[in-house]
């Protein structure tokens, strides 16, 4: 495993941040018409269909070992079912900006969890300082206005933090599949398949989706975008990075999600870049450099 990021790893991390950043937009559209568990169950089910289509078309070998599938089911629970449900639940009550800030605590929890459980990802002073500076950069770039009303909807905010903790455990747990030599496509396909099987009984029992009115076209397009890009493609990249750069480095993607959102708006929506946003990006870059470690060595 690389303890430091290569150029290709950085490019993949930036790409992952861009397609994951879209999930906040898609969720914002979906929560207007669909209940939480139905959204999450549809997301992982459609993603599983897309990924199984790719697996069958390319002939990737899928192991049938029972213990492996139990591990994939565990990963689907802590990397999909729990965090997706908590994030969608939270976004029904808090703004996307505040959700992004809370989601940016993921590297902190990942460093603490991976540093405790993994021998090759011990946490250190520079890493923790880097997380603190990167988190400050996220707040500066998104704007302190996102924190207004933070004293309200406390349960929704705790749910967002719970998702970050779950992601930290998932990244740490997911390292085992690289050691077993399991293809990233198989890991991504297995986890969304297992989480689909876990979620649909709950969704049918609590949400009764068959009794809901048929949603509009915008909901279906958002769901397809969420499943195809922000889930299927995202997790293929995610597990490829996880096996090469580790849980701590991978968790830095949450700092880059708001950066990607702002840069995409600059390129495609003709938005402007403010001085405060540039300062926030600089702080994030500094935090990432500290976590990477080469800046300290030099």
How would you describe what is shown here?
It is a single chain. The protein is mainly α. It has helices at residues 7-30, 36-58, 66-91, 96-103, 106-117, 125-142, 154-179, 184-206, 217-250, 253-268, 275-292, 294-297. It has twelve helices and no strands. The longest helix has 34 residues, at 217-250. The two termini are 21 Å apart.
Summarize the structure.
With 298 residues, this protein is mostly helical.
Sequence stretches where pLDDT stays below 50 over 5 or more residues: none
> Strand tally, please?
0
- State which percent range the strand residues make up: under 5%
Overall pLDDT: 80
Identify the overall geometry: globular
Helical content class: over 70%
Derived structural class? mainly alpha
From N to C, what is the helix and strand string? Answer: HHHHHHHHHHHH
By DSSP (H or I, 4+ residues per run), the number of helices equals: 12
């Amino acid at each position: 495993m690389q303890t430091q990021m290569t150029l290709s790893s950085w490019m993949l991390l930036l790409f992952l941040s861009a397609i994951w950043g879209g999930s906040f937009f898609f969720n914002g559209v979906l929560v207007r018409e669909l209940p939480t568990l139905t959204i999450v169950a549809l997301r992982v089910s459609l993603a599983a269909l897309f990924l199984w289509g790719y697996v069958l078309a390319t002939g990737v070998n899928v192991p049938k070992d029972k213990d492996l599938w139990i591990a994939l089911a565990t990963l689907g629970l802590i990397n999909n079912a729990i965090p997706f449900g908590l994030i969608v639940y939270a976004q029904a009550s808090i703004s996307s900006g505040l959700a992004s800030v809370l989601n940016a605590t993921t590297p902190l929890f990942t460093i603490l969890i991976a540093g405790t459980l993994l021998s090759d990802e011990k946490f250190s002073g520079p890493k923790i300082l880097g997380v603190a500076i990167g988190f400050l950069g996220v707040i500066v770039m998104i704007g302190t206005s996102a924190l207004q009303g933070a004293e309200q909807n406390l349960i929704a905010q705790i749910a967002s933090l719970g998702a970050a903790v779950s992601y930290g455990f998932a990244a740490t747990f997911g390292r085992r599949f690289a050691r077993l030599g399991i293809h990233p496509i198989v890991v991504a396909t297995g986890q969304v398949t297992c989480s689909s099987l876990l979620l649909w009984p709950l969704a049918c029992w609590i949400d009764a989706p068959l009794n809901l009115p048929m949603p509009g076209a915008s909901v279906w397009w958002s769901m397809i975008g969420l499943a195809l890009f922000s889930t299927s493609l995202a997790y293929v990249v995610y597990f490829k990075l996880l096996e090469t750069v580790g849980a701590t480095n991978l968790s830095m993607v949450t700092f880059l999600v708001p950066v990607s959102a702002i840069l995409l708006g600059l390129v495609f929506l003709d938005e402007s870049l403010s001085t405060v946003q540039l300062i926030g990006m600089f702080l994030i870059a500094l935090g990432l450099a500290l976590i990477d470690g080469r800046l300290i060595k030099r």
